[in-house]
Amino acid sequence: MKRVLLVIIGCLIFCTSCIGAFQKEIDGGFPDKVTFPKEGGELSLTGEIPIYSIGIYYSGNQSGHRKKEDGSIEASLDWLTVRAKMGSNTIYLYADPKNNNKGRTFYVNLNHSDGYGEYVEIKVKQ
What is the pTM for the complete model shown? Predict the structure, then answer.
């Protein structure tokens, strides 16, 4: 009985250590964070990996990308829009102007595949 219990506990520990292997954060040549001025604006970032998936999230709210007719993908949430040509290594970020002095932060996830795997996370502040 002890042996069975030890095998079960060992399997549980092994399985929980594998969960993080499905997604791994990398930098992909992109910065860890970017900051927009209060007036908003546009920013382009070029990395080392092709982009096939974009997501924006903060505090439980999230937005995945939609594919556009011109072959690009775009994700928008509240004050931030992120666009990229499918398979390109350049993204374009557009921030709306801020009406108050409170800071706001979103996180942008970029994947070089349409599923699980390695991803880039960029913290976007304004």
Answer: 0.76
Alpha-carbon dihedral of residues 48, 54, 56, 60, nearest 10 degrees?
Answer: -120
pLDDT in tens, 46-68: 999 999 989 999 988 888 889 88
Contact 62, 54 (CB under 8 A): no
Q: Assess contact for 96 and 86: CB atoms under 8 A.
A: no
CATH T-level fold of 24-125: Immunoglobulin-like (2.60.40)
117-125 and 23-26: which strand pairing?
A: parallel
